[in-house]
Amino acid sequence: TCPVVMPKHHLAILTEPKGYSPRAISMLKSLGPVVAWADARRKPPFLRRATILAVKLGVRISKRFMDRLPNLRVIGTSTTGLNHIDMDEAERRGIRVVSLRGETKFLKTIFPTAEETIGLMVMLMRKLPWGFDAVRRGRWQKEKFYGHELSGKTLGIIGFGRLGSMVARFGRAFGMRVIACDPQVSARAMRRAGVEKVSLDDVFRQADVVSNHVLLTAGTNNLVRRRHFKLMQPTAYYINTARGELNDEKALLEALEKGWIAGAALDVLANEDPRGGHVKSHPLVRYARRHRNLIIVPHLGGATFESMRKTEDFIAEKVVREIKKLGN
After folding, report:
1. Which regions of 42-143 does DSSP assign to beta strands (E)?
2. Is there a catalytic annotation at residue 272?
3. Strands, DSSP E only, in 123-204?
4. What would the DSSP string read from start to end of 210-274?
């Protein structure tokens, strides 16, 4: 049900209005007008009045960005990661940031990133993108695209939280042995999920597929480094659907070029530009153009219509509650 209607003196801005949940917009309208601001290069006059900002990952909310909205009180972001927002600056200004982080019960109903991880795994190990590309070019070359089964392989998971445990469950359904590393999760809890707890190094040593599901923090930045890729088997694959900053991209490129690993699939890159400016000159993208063992997709993990609607509705409810707590 919609929250209690509040006095309509707030102005909410949507930075990515296309396809935004109608129910979420309706809830925000209970607080006042809702305005689309799809082009951050423009500086329309309503910015100074805005008290609520609803964002996803398409815009970086920097100090300079916040300067344009001097009356901003709440940022609602339908994400778990917060690296697209300058959190220190928001705190300094007294701006409350409402997100999906810590919403464990709700997030257990959101599956698309875990589904995408398995999809990337299958595509990579079975060489499906390159087989499809060959057919598009008029070639029917089955013998060139032999791949590997998931069944019987070892899946190594870094970060056994919500997504890591989902991917473990999906991996076991494919007949994979699953090992995982997470200092916050006990060996007993992992055993209950049919997973063996091992060290980070052993994930890389033992796994046929390593999948990264760690939350990005100052302590996990560049968590996966050159030495980890050197521990992997030359037949093993690396998958990252979390954040690009979690792995040393130069080291990953070296691992691919020198054959330390068989391949990789990435949903994320470090320092992503929402407008795609990083793609043209990115070394990993250049490598992917010339080779058949690296898949890169544009941060599609949570990009399903179902999950977007659910998360936008959930965040709108939280924003309304937050405004109420702030005393309108």
Report:
1. 52-55, 74-77, 96-98
2. yes
3. 154-158, 177-181, 196-197
4. EEE-PPP-TTTTT-B-HHHHHHS-TT-EEEE-S-GGGB-HHHHHHHHHTTSSSEEEES--TT--T
Options 73, 162, 243, 282, the catalytic residue: 243
Both structure tokens of 201: 């190094």
CA atoms of 223 and 256, how far apart (whole Å): 18
Catalytic residue among 10, 162, 282, 299: 299
Q: Is 0.85 topped by the overall pTM? A: yes
Strands (E), 89-243: 96-98, 154-158, 177-181, 196-197, 209-212, 237-240
Characterize the bridge pairing of strands 237-240 and 263-266. parallel
pLDDT in tens, the chain (328 residues): 444 444 467 999 999 888 899 999 999 999 999 999 877 677 788 888 999 999 987 888 999 999 999 999 999 999 888 888 999 999 999 999 999 998 999 999 999 999 999 999 999 999 999 999 999 999 999 999 999 999 999 999 999 999 999 999 999 999 999 999 999 999 999 999 999 999 999 999 999 999 999 999 999 999 999 999 999 999 999 999 999 999 999 999 999 999 999 999 999 999 988 788 899 899 999 999 999 999 999 999 999 999 999 999 999 999 999 998 887 5
Q: Cα separation of 38 and 271, whole Å?
A: 21
Backbone angles phi, psi at 22, to 5 degrees: -60, -35
Annotated active-site residue in 116, 245, 249, 272: 272
Annotated active-site residue 290? The verdict is no
Beta bridge partners of 61: 85
243 counts as catalytic: yes
In angstroms, rounded to a whole number, what is the distance separating the alpha carbons of residues 237 and 155?
A: 10
Question: In this structure, what DSSP letter does residue 61 have?
Answer: B
